[in-house]
Amino acid sequence: MTVRVGLTGGIASGKSTVSSILAELGAVVIDADLIAREVVARGTPGLAALVEEFGTGLLTADGDLDRPAMGALVFSDDDARRRLEAIIHPLVHRRSAELEADADPGALVVHDIPLLAEVGRAGTFDAVVVVDAPAELQVSRMVEHRGWSREEAESRIAAQASREDRLAIATHVVVNTGSLDDLRQQVEDVHADLLARA
């Protein structure tokens, strides 16, 4: 039996690292962020729908989506963010379902979804893994590793679900405050538990 797992975590929580470890352990990882990029690539109906909704000002000179411009718009305007999500989420959901259907029976299928708590789909999975880190640690990671200002980092965290909201949907919590070895051990333990459900 296929075990369907939702994986989520706040920005700079270490979710991508956990996702990579799960893939190394043999899980089929379906990355919503990668799919979200694919569905609005140049020439796609998704990009055409964004241009129709928001105008050509969100395109680069080459005709690609200008991600920084789009990000600046939607993270400061809740209405714009909802309009963006209304276009992208159904496209991502459809592509994710196609990829899941291609997985081997009995596979551990992990849907890496940054906004899982926000979109209210936690109940559609057999298990939900939340990668957790304190907000202060998230901020310091963004400042140190991404070169963002403290204000940018805090506003990005504020635009996401609260830490409490994410933890409320978790069946498994991976706490990413220590070393990579510690993180890997936690992920291996969670992976073993998830496989036991199959």
UniProtKB/TrEMBL annotation:
Taking the first listed entry, what is the main subcellular location of this protein, grouped into a coarse class? Answer: cytoplasm
Q: Where does ATP bind?
A: A12, S13, G14, K15, S16, T17
Superkingdom, taxonomy of origin: Bacteria
Q: Does the keyword Acetylation apply?
A: no
Pfam families linked: CoaE
Question: Which reaction(s) are listed as its catalytic activity?
Answer: 3'-dephospho-CoA + ATP = ADP + CoA + H(+)
Q: In which pathway does it act?
A: Cofactor biosynthesis; coenzyme A biosynthesis; CoA from (R)-pantothenate: step 5/5
Compartment(s): Cytoplasm
Residues annotated as signal peptide:
none
CDD domains from the UniProt entry:
DPCK
What does the record give under GO molecular function?
A: dephospho-CoA kinase activity
Keyword Transmembrane helix listed? The answer is no
Q: Which UniProt keywords apply?
A: ATP-binding, Coenzyme A biosynthesis, Cytoplasm, Kinase, Nucleotide-binding, Transferase
Check the record and name the InterPro entries matching this protein. Answer: Depp_CoAkinase, P-loop_NTPase
Query: Which SUPFAM superfamilies does the protein's record reference?
Result: P-loop containing nucleoside triphosphate hydrolases (SSF52540)
Q: What is its EC number?
A: 2.7.1.24
Q: Which Gene3D superfamilies match?
A: P-loop containing nucleotide triphosphate hydrolases
Its job? Catalyzes the phosphorylation of the 3'-hydroxyl group of dephosphocoenzyme A to form coenzyme A.
- NCBIfam families referenced in this protein's UniProt entry, alphabetically: dephospho-CoA kinase (TIGR00152), PRK03333.1 (NF002879)
Q: Member of which family?
A: Belongs to the CoaE family.
What PANTHER family does its record include?
BIFUNCTIONAL COENZYME A SYNTHASE-RELATED, DEPHOSPHO-COA KINASE-RELATED
What HAMAP family does the database record attribute to this sequence? Dephospho_CoA_kinase
Protein name per the record? Dephospho-CoA kinase
